[in-house]
Design goal:
This protein is α/β, with parallel strands linked by helices and 115 residues long. The chain is 30% helix and 25% strand. The protein has a four-stranded mixed beta sheet with strand order 2-1-3-4, with helices on one face. The chain has a two-stranded antiparallel ribbon with strand order 5-6. Helix 1 (17-32) packs antiparallel against helix 2. The longest helix is centred in the last third of the chain and has 19 residues, at 71-89. 24% of the residues are buried.
Length: 115
């Protein structure tokens, strides 16, 4: 049930968001080792964001997962998601933060219950 939530001040007008969602979903599933059928990716654009005192292209993300996260995996995920944002939305890698949450199944609701 990994969920990647990405917010950026970049405009998504005219952007193939389906391609971004697809590659991000596949990347998260592969690196965490979970079936892609359980991966959710949320992408929000044109969000007011200031980073370093300016509003140049930037992004913030949070990745929640029940297991599968560790320092090595997190480093790979950070690099992979930053690469997607840089190539698809022109957000420099240096202007992106990604926060990781490894949670218990009882803390995540799905299908009217919890995991």
């Amino acid at each position: 049930m990994p969920c990647l939530n990405l917010s950026t001040n970049a405009s998504l007008d005219g952007v193939d968001t389906s391609a971004i969602l697809s590659v991000a979903s596949k990347t998260v599933a592969r690196l965490i080792g979970k079936p892609e059928a359980y991966v959710m990716v949320v992408l929000k654009g044109s969000v007011p964001i200031s980073f370093g005192g300016n509003e140049q292209p930037a992004a913030y993300g949070e990745l929640v997962s029940i297991g599968g996260l560790n320092p090595d995996t997190n480093k790979k995920l950070s690099a992979a998601i930053a690469e997607i944002l840089e190539t698809k939305l022109s957000v420099p890698k240096s202007r992106f933060f990604l926060k990781f949450y490894d949670t218990k199944g009882s803390n995540f609701g799905w299908n009217g219950s919890t995991f």
